[in-house]
């Protein structure tokens, strides 16, 4: 399950830092994935080795929290190395950002190197090769909308909105599909399967993007059907998700 260990303020911080450093959109999504996976793995690793007392665990949480900004920047470092079109994120830039967002701590080159290795080791030396943005680009190409003016920028903005409003978005979807918040284990599993389905998310964003292009209803239905066949998700689920996202985008 994604988004288990990455709160919205961290997502927002990653967006702002990547914008400030003029990094590509893929980098922020990779960094979010890495931070989420790292924190999940790191907490579990520490929990298994810690004394199982409330005071001890509280101290562990405080320690990890105090280092979270450093780990965030390490995730950005690693993510940046996946983009061959980007310049390397220099240590001096990392230190400059850390001095701005964490004035209480002192950082050195060695600390930056050690943190980057620690994050990479904790995620099993594995990097994500496919982000939700990649899925969106593939789906746009598959339905012939890849070269549509402004579509790329529009879908990136919609994807950013999903990342910043994920809980609200899926809660609305759940209520629309089931008529209520998940109660049974089966209902919860069904929602989890949708939340973790990147192709479903991509298809919903693409369909929502076509709404902003002011296509007629029949054309939108044809696009929705094609997307449903491509990602093997019921057409009404994609349609519902796209409409919820449209309302949220207009409100924003």
From TrEMBL:
Position of the signal peptide: none
Superkingdom assignment: Eukaryota
GO BP field: reciprocal meiotic recombination
Any single Gene Ontology cellular-component annotation: site of double-strand break
Coiled coil: none
Protein's UniProt name: Cyclin N-terminal domain-containing protein 1
Species whose genome carries this gene: Eufriesea mexicana
Lineage: Eukaryota, Metazoa, Ecdysozoa, Arthropoda, Hexapoda
